[in-house]
Each structure stands twice: as C-alpha cells, then as structure tokens.
Design goal:
heterodimer; A: about 180 residues; mainly alpha; Arc Repressor Mutant, subunit A; 9 helices; globular; B: about 100 residues; about 85% helix; about 0% strand; transmembrane helix (chain B); membrane (chain B); DUF5345 (chain B)
C-alpha cells in the first residue's frame, strides 16, 4: 500500500494505517534525531512525541513536502521546545545530555567505532546550528527546504551552516594543537 | 576538515542497530501517549478551572456579599481536589510509571 493511501486512511483516524505509515518512516526519524541530539533516550522520547503530534495533526498534512520532512519539522519543534524549558530544568537536561552521550559512545564501541574528535566538535555546536549543518551536509536539503523545516529564513540557515562549519574546523584544529 | 569527514563520522551513528519495532509496538506506544496527553489535558483544564473558581469566589464575596455562594463553591472545590488526586494516582500506576521512567 502506498504512503498516499495510508495518509488518506490515517486522516480518517484509522490507527492501523497510521501505525503502518509511521513504522515506514520511524527509523529515518530516529536516526536523524540521534545525530541531532546525540542522545538515544531523548531521541526515543522525541520520536514518540512526534508520533502523537503527527497522528493528532495528520489532517493538516497537505502533501506539499514529503511525509518524512513533515515529521522532521514536528520533531525539530519538539526538540527546540525541550531546550527552551525553564531554567530550573536546564541542569537536569544537561545531565541527561551527558548520560545520553555516554550511552551513544558505548553503542558506537559495540559496533567497533569510537567517539571521534569530529563528533565531539559536532556535539559542541549549538543545537540550531547542529541541525542546520546536519540537514545541509548530511541529508542534502537545500537552504530553502531547511528554512521551511526549521521555521526560519533561508538566509538564517545559510549563516548557521557557515558558522557551524567554521566552529567545527576550529574545534578540530584546537584538538590537533592540544 | 572536509564535508566527507563529518559525513563519515555521522554515518557511524546510522550503523548503530536499534531493537526491532513492530506495528503493534507503534499502536501500543500511540495508545500510551494518547492516554498521557489526555491526563495532562485534564490536569491543565482542572487547574485553570480551579483558579477561575477561586477568583470567582473572591469577586462574589467582595462585590455581591453572598457568603452562602462562597460555601457552595468551597464544597465544589472539595469535590474537585479529590478528583484531581484520583487522576494523579491513575497516571502514576506502577506499570505506567515504571515504563515511563
């Protein structure tokens, strides 16, 4: 069954069709979030929240972008909302981030990979810059598309990507010198 | 640093194997999330309702001087609080809580 058909069925509150549709895109979404947040548990939470939000708002999906892009837009909003949470929760979020990164690093080791200096520099980028660099250079979206995904102008995206790449280079040079 | 270096490093994350998720898992997670969302909604609505009630009580007493209405409203509040506690307990049932944590 095609995505289009499943979307139409899901719009009529057919949970089975939605589950089938979400299952097809879940893996892509989870891996995107894992690279963005660098935290497996947080990624899983955001996937589940994205699932609920997309189910509740599927009637608003008009097909102008791919379903995956629409899910990424929702997931981005959820992630940035979490980061904007009150000050008192920031320390807790930071701790979770450290624990999450340790878990990811351990998972990489299980795959005979390691947490490299590049990943460390990537982690140090501000989340909105990290998202822009990820979408542009890893997923190959255009500046306009990223602008739509993140709800900002394409010029802003361009500047974030530029700043991100400079910071990544600086980070790596710093590591080499150190 | 080249663009490819970054992409190679990020692709390592893509290689991490995740546990297999089935359609039934998605349906179960969706049901759980819907229940959580509804409970949260009830809590928030009840909270604003309670605040409104307290304000209304204050205005009623100060402007209309009707103490009997105050008592009636207080009884209503006394019903609302156990209701909120009940909702809270339901959302903290052991299976739900453990899974959530």
């Amino acid at each position: 069954m095609s995505d289009r058909l499943l979307i139409d069925k899901a719009k009529n509150k057919n949970k089975d069709a939605f589950a089938e549709l979400f299952l097809r895109h879940r893996d892509f979404l989870y891996r995107y979030l894992l690279k963005l947040t660098l935290n497996p548990d947080l990624s899983e939470d955001i996937v589940q929240d994205t699932m609920l939000k997309s189910y509740q708002n599927i009637k608003k999906y008009n097909g102008s972008s791919s379903f995956t892009s629409w899910l990424i837009t929702i997931a981005n909003r959820i992630y940035f909302d979490i980061l904007r949470k009150k000050k008192r929760e920031r320390n807790w979020i930071k701790q979770q981030q450290i624990l999450g990164q340790r878990k990811l690093s351990w998972q990489l080791q299980q795959n005979n990979d390691r947490w490299s200096a590049t990943l460390e520099s990537f982690k140090e980028l501000k989340p909105d810059i990290r998202a822009a660099v990820l979408l542009k250079h890893y997923y190959g979206y255009t500046y306009d598309e990223i602008g739509k995904l993140m709800g900002v102008k394409s010029g802003t995206v361009k500047s974030r990507v530029h700043v991100g790449l400079i910071q990544l280079r600086k980070g790596l040079l710093g590591d080499e010198e150190g | 640093m080249k663009k490819d270096d970054l992409n190679n490093e990020l692709s390592k994350i893509d290689r991490i194997t995740e546990e297999l998720i089935t359609k039934e898992d998605i349906l179960w997670q969706l049901g759980k999330k819907e229940r959580q969302y509804q409970r949260q909604l009830i809590k928030e609505v009840s909270f604003f309702f309670l605040i409104g009630l307290i304000l209304m009580t204050g205005f009623t007493i100060s402007f209309l001087k009707l103490p009997i209405l105050f008592i009636v409203l207080q009884i209503f509040v006394l019903i609302l609080i156990p209701f909120l506690v009940y909702i809270e307990n339901r959302s903290n049932n052991p299976i739900g809580r453990w899974h959530h944590e």
